Protein backbone atom coordinates (compact mmCIF):
# COMPACT_ATOMS: atom_id res chain seq x y z
CA UNK A 1 0.00 0.00 0.00
CA UNK A 2 1.38 3.39 -0.96
CA UNK A 3 1.61 6.15 1.62
CA UNK A 4 -1.33 8.49 1.83
CA UNK A 5 0.11 10.93 4.33
CA UNK A 6 3.30 12.90 4.54
CA UNK A 7 4.89 11.10 7.47
CA UNK A 8 8.64 10.99 7.02
CA UNK A 9 10.18 8.19 9.11
CA UNK A 10 13.45 8.89 11.02
CA UNK A 11 15.52 6.73 8.71
CA UNK A 12 14.23 8.50 5.57
CA UNK A 13 17.08 10.09 3.61
CA UNK A 14 15.99 12.46 0.80
CA UNK A 15 19.27 12.03 -1.06
CA UNK A 16 19.03 8.25 -0.97
CA UNK A 17 15.25 7.68 -1.36
CA UNK A 18 14.28 10.82 -3.35
CA UNK A 19 10.55 10.27 -2.59
CA UNK A 20 8.29 8.66 -0.01
CA UNK A 21 6.91 6.21 -2.57
CA UNK A 22 10.43 5.18 -3.50
CA UNK A 23 11.28 4.83 0.22
CA UNK A 24 8.35 2.43 0.61
CA UNK A 25 9.11 0.71 -2.70
CA UNK A 26 5.66 1.54 -4.14
CA UNK A 27 4.46 3.12 -7.38
CA UNK A 28 2.41 6.30 -7.12
CA UNK A 29 -0.52 4.48 -8.77
CA UNK A 30 -0.35 1.68 -6.23
CA UNK A 31 -1.67 -1.77 -7.04
CA UNK A 32 -2.94 -0.65 -10.43
CA UNK A 33 0.68 -0.36 -11.52
CA UNK A 34 1.73 -3.89 -10.45
CA UNK A 35 2.49 -4.84 -14.08
CA UNK A 36 3.95 -1.47 -15.06
CA UNK A 37 7.28 -3.06 -15.88
CA UNK A 38 5.51 -4.87 -18.77
CA UNK A 39 3.90 -1.61 -19.89
CA UNK A 40 0.53 -2.67 -18.44
CA UNK A 41 -1.68 -0.48 -16.28
CA UNK A 42 -4.84 -1.84 -14.70
CA UNK A 43 -7.81 0.37 -15.53
CA UNK A 44 -11.55 0.14 -15.30
CA UNK A 45 -12.92 -0.65 -18.75
CA UNK A 46 -16.58 -0.61 -19.78
CA UNK A 47 -17.75 -2.75 -22.68
CA UNK A 48 -18.76 -0.43 -25.54
CA UNK A 49 -21.03 -3.05 -27.16
CA UNK A 50 -22.64 -6.45 -26.53
CA UNK A 51 -20.37 -9.45 -26.89
CA UNK A 52 -20.43 -13.22 -26.53
CA UNK A 53 -17.62 -14.69 -24.52
CA UNK A 54 -15.54 -17.04 -26.69
CA UNK A 55 -14.84 -19.44 -23.82
CA UNK A 56 -18.19 -19.88 -22.03
CA UNK A 57 -20.35 -18.57 -24.92
CA UNK A 58 -22.35 -16.36 -22.56
CA UNK A 59 -23.80 -13.06 -23.66
CA UNK A 60 -22.22 -10.07 -21.89
CA UNK A 61 -24.11 -6.82 -22.13
CA UNK A 62 -22.82 -3.44 -23.13
CA UNK A 63 -21.73 -1.41 -20.10
CA UNK A 64 -20.33 -4.25 -17.99
CA UNK A 65 -17.09 -3.08 -16.37
CA UNK A 66 -13.86 -4.97 -15.96
CA UNK A 67 -10.46 -4.34 -14.43
CA UNK A 68 -8.70 -4.47 -17.75
CA UNK A 69 -5.02 -4.56 -18.52
CA UNK A 70 -4.43 -1.50 -20.63
CA UNK A 71 -1.40 -1.49 -22.85
CA UNK A 72 -0.19 0.66 -25.68
CA UNK A 73 0.38 -1.54 -28.74
CA UNK A 74 1.04 0.96 -31.51
CA UNK A 75 0.20 4.24 -33.17
CA UNK A 76 -2.18 5.46 -35.83
CA UNK A 77 -0.27 8.55 -36.97
CA UNK A 78 0.31 10.22 -33.61
CA UNK A 79 -2.68 8.62 -31.86
CA UNK A 80 -1.78 5.67 -29.65
CA UNK A 81 -3.63 2.39 -30.12
CA UNK A 82 -4.49 0.70 -26.82
CA UNK A 83 -5.34 -2.89 -26.06
CA UNK A 84 -7.67 -3.83 -23.18
CA UNK A 85 -7.36 -7.38 -21.87
CA UNK A 86 -10.29 -8.42 -19.69
CA UNK A 87 -11.12 -11.58 -17.82
CA UNK A 88 -14.69 -12.84 -18.28
CA UNK A 89 -16.65 -12.64 -15.03
CA UNK A 90 -18.61 -15.83 -15.86
CA UNK A 91 -15.61 -18.01 -16.65
CA UNK A 92 -11.83 -17.67 -16.58
CA UNK A 93 -11.45 -16.85 -20.24
CA UNK A 94 -9.72 -13.70 -21.42
CA UNK A 95 -10.76 -11.50 -24.28
CA UNK A 96 -9.02 -8.58 -25.86
CA UNK A 97 -10.43 -5.36 -27.30
CA UNK A 98 -8.41 -2.74 -29.22
CA UNK A 99 -9.12 0.87 -29.97
CA UNK A 100 -9.36 1.73 -33.67
CA UNK A 101 -8.53 5.43 -34.09
CA UNK A 102 -8.85 5.24 -37.88
CA UNK A 103 -12.54 4.38 -37.66
CA UNK A 104 -13.04 5.88 -34.18
CA UNK A 105 -14.35 2.66 -32.64
CA UNK A 106 -13.39 -0.43 -30.68
CA UNK A 107 -12.75 -3.86 -32.17
CA UNK A 108 -12.77 -7.27 -30.51
CA UNK A 109 -9.49 -8.92 -31.37
CA UNK A 110 -9.65 -12.27 -29.58
CA UNK A 111 -11.59 -14.34 -27.04
CA UNK A 112 -15.08 -13.00 -27.85
CA UNK A 113 -17.49 -12.17 -30.62
CA UNK A 114 -19.01 -8.75 -31.06
CA UNK A 115 -22.76 -8.52 -31.59
CA UNK A 116 -23.24 -6.78 -34.92
CA UNK A 117 -25.46 -3.83 -34.19
CA UNK A 118 -24.04 -1.31 -36.61
CA UNK A 119 -26.53 1.17 -37.96
CA UNK A 120 -27.02 0.43 -41.64
CA UNK A 121 -28.63 3.39 -43.40
CA UNK A 122 -29.48 1.35 -46.49
CA UNK A 123 -31.45 -1.11 -44.40
CA UNK A 124 -33.39 1.71 -42.75
CA UNK A 125 -34.49 3.58 -45.83
CA UNK A 126 -31.41 5.77 -46.25
CA UNK A 127 -28.55 5.81 -48.70
CA UNK A 128 -25.72 3.31 -48.65
CA UNK A 129 -22.34 4.49 -47.39
CA UNK A 130 -19.49 3.56 -49.69
CA UNK A 131 -15.78 3.58 -49.12
CA UNK A 132 -14.68 6.60 -51.11
CA UNK A 133 -10.96 5.81 -50.83
CA UNK A 134 -10.09 4.05 -54.06
CA UNK A 135 -8.21 0.84 -53.41
CA UNK A 136 -7.42 -0.54 -56.86
CA UNK A 137 -6.32 2.74 -58.45
CA UNK A 138 -3.05 2.81 -56.52
CA UNK A 139 -2.08 -0.59 -57.94
CA UNK A 140 -2.52 0.42 -61.57
CA UNK A 141 0.53 2.48 -62.68
CA UNK A 142 -1.14 3.61 -65.91
CA UNK A 143 -4.17 4.90 -64.04
CA UNK A 144 -1.86 6.68 -61.60
CA UNK A 145 0.04 8.27 -64.51
CA UNK A 146 -3.20 9.36 -66.15
CA UNK A 147 -4.35 10.90 -62.90
CA UNK A 148 -1.13 12.85 -62.44
CA UNK A 149 -1.24 14.03 -66.08
CA UNK A 150 -4.81 15.21 -65.69
CA UNK A 151 -3.82 17.07 -62.53
CA UNK A 152 -0.90 18.68 -64.36
CA UNK A 153 -3.14 19.76 -67.23
CA UNK A 154 -5.70 21.18 -64.83
CA UNK A 155 -3.00 23.18 -63.07
CA UNK A 156 -1.58 24.57 -66.34
CA UNK A 157 -4.86 25.36 -68.03
CA UNK A 158 -7.10 26.44 -65.15
CA UNK A 159 -5.25 27.19 -61.95
CA UNK A 160 -2.23 29.09 -63.26
CA UNK A 161 -4.20 31.48 -65.55
CA UNK A 162 -6.66 32.13 -62.73
CA UNK A 163 -3.90 32.97 -60.27
CA UNK A 164 -2.24 35.24 -62.85
CA UNK A 165 -5.52 37.04 -63.51
CA UNK A 166 -6.02 37.54 -59.78
CA UNK A 167 -2.45 38.83 -59.50
CA UNK A 168 -3.05 41.31 -62.33
CA UNK A 169 -6.22 42.51 -60.68
CA UNK A 170 -4.45 42.96 -57.37
CA UNK A 171 -1.65 44.90 -59.09
CA UNK A 172 -4.16 47.09 -60.88
CA UNK A 173 -5.92 48.08 -57.67
CA UNK A 174 -2.84 48.18 -55.51
CA UNK A 175 -0.72 50.38 -57.80
CA UNK A 176 -2.08 53.82 -56.86
CA UNK A 177 -4.26 53.66 -53.76
CA UNK A 178 -4.26 57.45 -53.28
CA UNK A 179 -5.86 58.25 -56.63
CA UNK A 180 -8.38 55.44 -56.25
CA UNK A 181 -9.33 56.54 -52.77
CA UNK A 182 -9.77 60.12 -53.98
CA UNK A 183 -12.02 59.00 -56.81
CA UNK A 184 -14.16 56.89 -54.52
CA UNK A 185 -14.50 59.60 -51.90
CA UNK A 186 -15.47 62.17 -54.52
CA UNK A 187 -18.23 59.96 -55.82
CA UNK A 188 -19.38 59.23 -52.30
CA UNK A 189 -19.62 62.96 -51.51
CA UNK A 190 -21.76 63.57 -54.61
CA UNK A 191 -24.10 60.72 -53.75
CA UNK A 192 -24.32 61.92 -50.16
CA UNK A 193 -25.32 65.39 -51.34
CA UNK A 194 -28.14 64.05 -53.49
CA UNK A 195 -29.26 61.75 -50.71
CA UNK A 196 -29.36 64.60 -48.22
CA UNK A 197 -31.49 66.75 -50.53
CA UNK A 198 -33.93 63.90 -50.95
CA UNK A 199 -34.08 63.40 -47.21
CA UNK A 200 -34.83 67.07 -46.62
CA UNK A 201 -37.62 66.96 -49.20
CA UNK A 202 -39.09 63.88 -47.61
CA UNK A 203 -39.06 65.27 -44.10
CA UNK A 204 -40.68 68.46 -45.34
CA UNK A 205 -43.45 66.42 -47.01
CA UNK A 206 -43.92 64.27 -43.93
CA UNK A 207 -44.14 67.35 -41.72
CA UNK A 208 -46.73 68.88 -44.00
CA UNK A 209 -49.02 65.84 -44.00
CA UNK A 210 -48.21 64.62 -40.48
CA UNK A 211 -46.87 61.31 -41.74
CA UNK A 212 -44.83 59.03 -39.41
CA UNK A 213 -41.04 59.57 -39.50
CA UNK A 214 -40.24 55.97 -40.38
CA UNK A 215 -42.53 55.89 -43.44
CA UNK A 216 -40.61 55.23 -46.63
CA UNK A 217 -41.64 57.42 -49.53
CA UNK A 218 -41.50 56.24 -53.14
CA UNK A 219 -39.13 58.02 -55.51
CA UNK A 220 -40.45 59.93 -58.48
CA UNK A 221 -39.21 58.94 -61.90
CA UNK A 222 -40.35 59.25 -65.49
CA UNK A 223 -41.82 55.79 -65.38
CA UNK A 224 -43.79 56.23 -62.16
CA UNK A 225 -45.02 59.61 -63.33
CA UNK A 226 -46.35 58.06 -66.51
CA UNK A 227 -47.98 55.30 -64.48
CA UNK A 228 -49.62 57.79 -62.15
CA UNK A 229 -50.98 59.78 -65.06
CA UNK A 230 -52.36 56.65 -66.68
CA UNK A 231 -53.99 55.61 -63.40
CA UNK A 232 -55.56 59.05 -63.00
CA UNK A 233 -57.00 58.91 -66.53
CA UNK A 234 -58.42 55.47 -65.93
CA UNK A 235 -60.06 56.53 -62.66
CA UNK A 236 -61.55 59.59 -64.32
CA UNK A 237 -62.97 57.52 -67.16
CA UNK A 238 -64.53 55.09 -64.70
CA UNK A 239 -66.10 57.92 -62.72
CA UNK A 240 -67.61 59.42 -65.88
CA UNK A 241 -69.05 56.06 -66.88
CA UNK A 242 -70.57 55.64 -63.46
CA UNK A 243 -72.12 59.08 -63.58
CA UNK A 244 -73.62 58.61 -67.00
CA UNK A 245 -75.07 55.23 -65.94
CA UNK A 246 -76.65 56.89 -62.93
CA UNK A 247 -78.13 59.61 -65.11
CA UNK A 248 -79.63 57.01 -67.44
CA UNK A 249 -81.16 55.24 -64.46
CA UNK A 250 -82.66 58.50 -63.25
CA UNK A 251 -84.19 59.17 -66.68
CA UNK A 252 -85.85 55.78 -66.50
CA UNK A 253 -87.32 56.48 -63.06
CA UNK A 254 -88.58 59.79 -64.32
CA UNK A 255 -90.58 58.08 -67.06
CA UNK A 256 -92.17 55.61 -64.64
CA UNK A 257 -94.97 57.89 -63.43
CA UNK A 258 -96.11 58.51 -67.03
CA UNK A 259 -97.27 54.90 -67.51
CA UNK A 260 -97.55 53.49 -64.00
CA UNK A 261 -100.17 50.83 -64.77
CA UNK A 262 -97.94 49.01 -67.28
CA UNK A 263 -94.65 49.16 -65.36
CA UNK A 264 -96.02 48.54 -61.87
CA UNK A 265 -99.06 46.28 -62.08
CA UNK A 266 -99.19 45.63 -58.32
CA UNK A 267 -97.65 48.75 -56.84
CA UNK A 268 -98.29 49.87 -53.30
CA UNK A 269 -101.62 51.12 -52.18
CA UNK A 270 -100.23 54.56 -51.31
CA UNK A 271 -98.93 55.10 -54.85
CA UNK A 272 -102.25 54.10 -56.39
CA UNK A 273 -104.12 56.34 -53.99
CA UNK A 274 -101.94 59.29 -54.92
CA UNK A 275 -102.59 58.63 -58.62
CA UNK A 276 -105.67 60.08 -60.21
CA UNK A 277 -108.29 57.77 -61.70
CA UNK A 278 -107.61 58.82 -65.32
CA UNK A 279 -104.00 57.45 -65.18
CA UNK A 280 -102.44 60.95 -65.26
CA UNK A 281 -99.55 61.58 -62.74
CA UNK A 282 -100.54 63.51 -59.66
CA UNK A 283 -98.94 66.82 -58.66
CA UNK A 284 -96.81 65.15 -55.94
CA UNK A 285 -95.36 62.67 -58.41
CA UNK A 286 -94.53 65.36 -60.93
CA UNK A 287 -92.68 67.31 -58.23
CA UNK A 288 -90.70 64.22 -57.21
CA UNK A 289 -89.63 63.53 -60.79
CA UNK A 290 -88.53 67.13 -61.20
CA UNK A 291 -86.40 67.03 -58.06
CA UNK A 292 -84.77 63.79 -59.13
CA UNK A 293 -84.09 65.21 -62.57
CA UNK A 294 -82.47 68.30 -61.07
CA UNK A 295 -80.10 66.32 -58.84
CA UNK A 296 -79.22 64.04 -61.75
CA UNK A 297 -78.32 67.01 -63.91
CA UNK A 298 -76.32 68.85 -61.27
CA UNK A 299 -74.04 65.95 -60.25
CA UNK A 300 -71.68 65.78 -63.30
CA UNK A 301 -71.03 69.52 -63.26
CA UNK A 302 -70.15 69.41 -59.57
CA UNK A 303 -67.49 66.67 -59.93
ZN1 LIG B 1 -16.78 -16.38 -20.32
From TrEMBL:
Signal peptide range in chain numbering: none
Bias (Low complexity) ranges: 266-278
UniProt xrefs under InterPro entries: Saf4/Yju2
Region of interest: Disordered: 114-139, 189-303
Gene Ontology CC annotations of this record: post-mRNA release spliceosomal complex; U2-type spliceosomal complex
Stretches with biased composition (Basic and acidic residues): 189-244
GO biological process: mRNA splicing, via spliceosome
Family membership noted in the UniProt record: Belongs to the CWC16 family.
Protein name from the UniProt record: DUF572-domain-containing protein
Organism annotation: Phanerochaete sordida
Lineage, highest ranks first: Eukaryota, Fungi, Dikarya, Basidiomycota, Agaricomycotina
Amino acid sequence: MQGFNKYYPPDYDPDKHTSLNAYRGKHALGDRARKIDQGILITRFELPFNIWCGTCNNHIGMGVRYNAEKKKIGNYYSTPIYSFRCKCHLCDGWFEIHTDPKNTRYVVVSGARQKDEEWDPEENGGFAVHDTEGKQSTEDPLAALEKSTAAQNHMNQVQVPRIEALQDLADHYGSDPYALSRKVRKRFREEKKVEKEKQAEDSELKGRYGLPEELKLARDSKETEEQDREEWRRAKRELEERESAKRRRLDVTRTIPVQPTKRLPSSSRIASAARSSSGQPSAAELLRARILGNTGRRKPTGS
